[in-house]
Inverse folding.
């Protein structure tokens, strides 16, 4: 695994010190098969004066997917798996479903979202130039710049901060929109409920 | 009088010589197999469509470099790219990367609101204001996603879907700045290069083939387990050119050398060799010049075929020298006058047979016919006009010639005996049995002798990439571009059903990239209404006042699209105006099962302006029609030649005619017994047999009992045999079949002709 990582990072054109940072950040991160918590997202979008703030809960099940349930300002659910992306308003007014096998761009974005939430630095190194620094006894900061032209079309740069878990993600989109997501009440339990498991199986 | 002809012919030869210098300097040789194929008599636009598709691809070299994982594949691709980019005057990398997408994005951006997929159209028509608003809101609050515009320019996030539908036309996807695809157990990188040299100008040196082979070796050495698949017209053209020039030198030089050796054995004198050589060279030069003047470009296959002309053209020189042997030089004028009637008769039947080749509307065959006929005339005129002037020395009879000439007396002659009739009965049974087993085949592939590895690579590439077929397509016509695009849309609706039934993988149409103006306006209205509702709902929910971006006033026109590099993918499918009509091509992907073809023909039925074109089937049908037509013409030809012979030889005419008839039937019978199918090109061989086989009978009848005539016929027979026998070695199936026909037929006719000679002491008069 270490050899693979080394190869990956070499290919990504990283410097020796950056390589060290990746290794060290990986050492600080908890290896999480399952992660739940609250999120608060502030999204700055052109055409809107104030940031669009939304809050809710999320569940990350590694190898399965992400459930992103917004509670305010309106209730909606987003299910992101390796195969698809589906969204639903709980009022039932709107829903949409995208098939990743038909839209490879979506599959790439899905992979990145997984990796961002779970702090999978190895996966991120395949698509981003990773630079960063350690902070304090437990903390770290990473800056990700896409090396893949397709991904560069979506993201300009991504900042990650955390300790044992990823605590903050700042997505700067290529079009200028910025989303800052803060995570709270992170936990590795309980395991998915039956409803959640059903959604992840989609 | 005679010297006047000689001077006149000298002037012609000088002019031809000058033209030849210019011709070889400008090298107007054609290697494209398509140039040999017949024009479609009914629809010239089909021909134009095929040419455009072929031209569009004529410089493209496409490669797939695969390895077991993505990292290895990328390294392998880099090795190949470096190796092929080494000589910038040969190959240039084609822009397949992300930068071409940016160009396309900028072109389409002002028209974003009128580019909808069928599914979007359907959704926008039926969705409620609430649903539209909700969807816009959810997409707005989504953490991130593939956006190509500001939110205001695409509040419902429709555009990425439209591009995803466009991208679905190819299995290759951008990944890490390269084009990637996965299949058959490997990860692949797609590379494309553009040849800096026209496919028509490619020589036999195989520069591109060489570069590709070097790249293959380099990548195998650098990345074990990697695999490279290469395809493209330049590779085919180089293979065809090198094959043709190899064959031209094997067949041309081989038969020339054999002929000259025979002449040396027979005459033991340099003069006949030189003079026969001169007549052959002049014959070929005249043939080449006339063909170049009439057809502008000479096809390499014509030269290969023409090389075998040597085998026929030397007959006149042989005939002269065989008769001249042992006679004093002073008699040569009278000798030539005595030979002329027989020689003219022989020339006439040969030229008629060659020109009959040109009846079929195959540009390639017409070239070969003209080439051969004019070559023969050139060689004949050289013999007739120059030989009596140049051949001044003594020419004693050599022991070899003497022995051969006297052998005629010992050759069996048909007489009405029990043994001869028994033999005839056996031959008749053999022929009847063989003819009963004769099969036919009319397949366009016989025109191609492409190396198997190129064909295999092409198939693998097509399979992995899901490339559309260039041989089967729909041709859509209309009064103007707008009508063509509208008609395409109707056709696509039917094709969508075949795609839904999984009979077809997909299609590629211009209207996918450029909807008709009417469709654009309708879609613009539809998206304006839906997006206004969505924006209003979002404004209400967020308490802000976002506005929908404005778009271009006009529609995207074909002219705009074609002027942009973004149209590279579909440019070759837009034929534009031809006559008073406009045309486009709709290409199909995943067309693997022949059983699907009738479905496609059915899909075009009843649609105005839409025509299903199956080039493979069409050409095979054409080959079949002409095989039958030429077969009928041969029968007529035999009747005409018999009548011609009767005017000169009266009741003895059968002696010159029958050996050729029997030889032809014998050849067909052998084909039947060994299972070699009869095809257009073997029928063409039969046509030539008629012209040449009868010559031998004519020479024998004109000079009965003369050993010199027999010697001339023997020399002619052996050298013709050599040249056509070598044609039987050609890698092009059509030429090989032609060569085999000539080989078998010639041997049979040559053996039979002396059997039918006049009894000793008798004369035709």
């Amino acid at each position: 695994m270490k050899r693979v990582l080394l190869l990956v990072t070499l290919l990504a054109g990283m410097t020796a010190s950056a390589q060290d940072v990746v290794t060290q950040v990986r050492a600080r991160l908890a290896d999480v098969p399952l992660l739940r918590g609250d999120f608060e997202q502030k999204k700055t979008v052109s055409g809107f004066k104030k940031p669009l703030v939304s809050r809710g809960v999320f569940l990350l099940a590694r190898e399965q997917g992400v459930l992103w349930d917004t509670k305010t300002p309106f209730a909606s659910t987003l299910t992101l798996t390796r195969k698809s992306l589906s969204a639903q308003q709980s009022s039932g007014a709107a829903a949409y479903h995208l098939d990743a096998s038909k839209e490879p761009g979506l599959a790439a974005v899905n992979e990145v979202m997984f990796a961002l939430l779970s702090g999978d630095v190895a996966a991120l190194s395949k698509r981003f130039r990773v630079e960063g620094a350690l902070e304090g006894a437990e903390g770290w900061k990473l800056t990700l710049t896409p090396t893949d032209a397709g991904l560069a079309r979506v993201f300009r740069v991504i900042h990650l901060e955390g300790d044992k878990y990823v605590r903050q993600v700042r997505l700067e989109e290529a079009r200028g929109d910025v989303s800052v997501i803060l995570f709270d009440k992170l936990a590795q339990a309980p395991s998915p409920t039956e409803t959640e498991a059903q959604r992840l199986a989609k | 009088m005679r010297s006047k002809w000689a001077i006149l012919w000298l002037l012609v030869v000088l002019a031809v010589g000058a033209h030849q210098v210019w011709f070889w300097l400008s090298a107007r040789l054609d290697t494209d197999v398509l140039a040999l194929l017949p024009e479609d008599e009914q629809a010239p636009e089909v021909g134009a469509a095929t040419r455009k598709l072929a031209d569009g691809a004529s410089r493209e070299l496409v490669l797939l470099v695969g390895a077991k994982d993505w990292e290895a594949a990328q390294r392998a691709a880099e090795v190949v790219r470096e190796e092929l980019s080494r000589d910038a005057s040969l190959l240039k990398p084609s822009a397949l990367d992300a930068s071409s997408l940016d160009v396309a994005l900028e072109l389409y951006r002002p028209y974003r609101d009128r580019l909808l997929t069928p599914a979007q159209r359907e959704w926008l028509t039926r969705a409620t204001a609430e649903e539209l608003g909700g969807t816009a809101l959810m997409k707005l609050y989504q953490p991130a996603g593939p956006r190509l515009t500001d939110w205001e320019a695409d509040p419902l996030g429709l555009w990425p879907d439209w591009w995803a539908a466009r991208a679905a036309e190819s299995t290759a996807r951008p990944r890490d700045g390269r084009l990637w695809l996965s299949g058959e157990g490997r990860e692949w990188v797609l590379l494309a290069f553009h040849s800096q040299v026209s496919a028509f100008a490619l020589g036999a040196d195989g520069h591109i083939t060489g570069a590709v082979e070097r790249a293959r070796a380099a990548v195998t050495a650098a990345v074990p387990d990697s695999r490279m698949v290469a395809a493209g017209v330049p590779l085919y053209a180089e293979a065809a050119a090198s094959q043709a020039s190899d064959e031209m030198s094997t067949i041309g030089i081989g038969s020339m050398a054999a002929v000259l050796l025979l002449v040396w054995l027979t005459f033991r004198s340099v003069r006949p060799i030189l003079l026969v050589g001169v007549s052959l060279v002049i014959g070929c030069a005249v043939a080449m010049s006339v063909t170049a003047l009439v057809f502008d470009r000479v096809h390499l296959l014509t030269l290969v075929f023409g090389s075998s002309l040597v085998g026929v053209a030397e007959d006149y020189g042989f005939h002269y020298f065989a008769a001249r042997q042992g006679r004093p030089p002073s008699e040569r004028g009278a000798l030539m006058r005595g030979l002329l009637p027989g020689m003219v008769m022989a020339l006439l039947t040969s030229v008629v047979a060659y020109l009959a080749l040109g009846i079929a509307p195959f540009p390639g065959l017409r070239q070969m016919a003209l080439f051969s006929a004019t070559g023969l005339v050139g060689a004949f005129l050289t013999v007739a006009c120059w030989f009596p002037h140049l051949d001044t020395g003594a020419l004693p009879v050599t022991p070899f010639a003497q022995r051969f000439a006297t052998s005629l007396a010992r050759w069996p002659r048909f007489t009405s005996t029990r043994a001869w009739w028994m033999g005839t009965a056996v031959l008749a049974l053999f022929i009847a049995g063989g003819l009963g087993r004769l099969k036919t085949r009319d397949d366009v592939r016989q025109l191609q002798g492409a190396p198997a590895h190129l064909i295999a690579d092409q198939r693998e590439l097509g399979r992995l990439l899901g490339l559309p077929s260039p041989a089967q397509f729909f041709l859509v016509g209309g009064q103007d571009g707008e009508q063509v695009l509208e008609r395409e849309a109707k056709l696509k609706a039917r094709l969508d059903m075949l795609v839904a039934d999984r009979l077809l993988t997909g299609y590629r149409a211009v209207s996918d990239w450029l909807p008709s103006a009417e469709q654009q306006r309708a879609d613009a209205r539809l998206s304006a209404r839906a997006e206004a509702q969505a924006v209003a709902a979002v404004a209400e929910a967020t308490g802000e006042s976002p506005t929908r971006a404005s778009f271009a006033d006009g529609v995207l026109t074909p002219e705009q699209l074609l002027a942009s590099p973004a149209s590279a993918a579909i440019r070759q499918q837009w034929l534009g105006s031809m006559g008073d009509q406009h045309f486009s091509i709709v290409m199909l992907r995943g067309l693997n099962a022949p059983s699907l073809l009738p479905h496609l023909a059915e899909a075009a039925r009843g649609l105005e302006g839409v025509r299903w074109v199956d080039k493979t089937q069409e050409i095979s049908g054409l080959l079949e029609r002409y095989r039958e037509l030429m077969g009928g013409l041969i029968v007529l030809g035999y009747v005409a030649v018999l009548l011609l012979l009767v005017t000169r030889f009266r009741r003895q005419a059968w002696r010159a005619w029958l050996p050729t008839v029997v030889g032809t039937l014998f050849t067909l019978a052998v084909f039947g017994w060994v299972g070699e199918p009869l095809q257009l090109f073997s029928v063409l061989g039969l046509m030539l047999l008629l012209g040449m086989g009868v010559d031998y009978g004519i020479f024998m009848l004109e000079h009965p009992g003369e050993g010199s005539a027999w010697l001339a016929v023997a020399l002619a027979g052996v050298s013709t045999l050599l040249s056509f026998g070598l044609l039987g070695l050609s890698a092009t199936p059509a030429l090989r079949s032609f060569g085999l026909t000539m080989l078998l037929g010639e041997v049979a006719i040559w053996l039979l002709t002396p059997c039918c000679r006049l009894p000793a002491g008798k004369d035709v008069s």
In short: The interface with chain A takes residues 71, 74, 97-98, 128, 130-135, 137-152, 160-161, 164, 167-168, 173-177, 541-542, 544, 546-547 of chain B (CB under 8 Å). The first strand of chain B starts at residue 29 and ends at 30.
